[in-house]
Amino acid sequence: MENQNSLLDALGIEMVEIEKGKVIATMPVNDQTRQPYGYLHGGASVALAETVASIGTTALIDLEKQICFGLEINANHVRSKKDGVVTAVAEVLHHGKSTMVWDIKIKDEQGELICISRCTVAIVPKR
């Protein structure tokens, strides 16, 4: 997977584990991921959540014939964070032919929940 010159590169997202039905990735809380008041930007958390869901989907489809795109995402930001690293764990809830639904939990280094998200990913034929 190519991260250079992508959103993953810009936000410092790093893949830790990719397996069928589960993805783990980390993201630093730094100047690139904080909002103007010094806290982790909710949009950065959502980008991390959609990233792990999309990468998880690619591990379950035939990339020669299919591609995937985020279709819908929601997020509840339950705790703020000013620095350090957050870890996203995505697990597939629904593995269909045209969509997959992923549950994503983003936690800090102490295991405290920062954000919980659900992402639906569309699977479409390659053109």
TrEMBL record:
Keywords: Hydrolase. SUPFAM superfamilies: Thioesterase/thiol ester dehydrase-isomerase (SSF54637). InterPro entries: HotDog_dom_sf, PAAI_dom, Thioestr_dom. Residues 37-115 form the Thioesterase domain. Coiled coil: none annotated. Signal peptide: none annotated. It comes from the Bacteria. One of its GO terms (molecular function) is 1,4-dihydroxy-2-naphthoyl-CoA thioesterase activity. GO terms for cellular component: cytosol. Belongs to the thioesterase PaaI family. NCBIfam families: unchar_dom_1. PANTHER family: 1,4-DIHYDROXY-2-NAPHTHOYL-COA THIOESTERASE 1. This is Hotdog fold thioesterase.
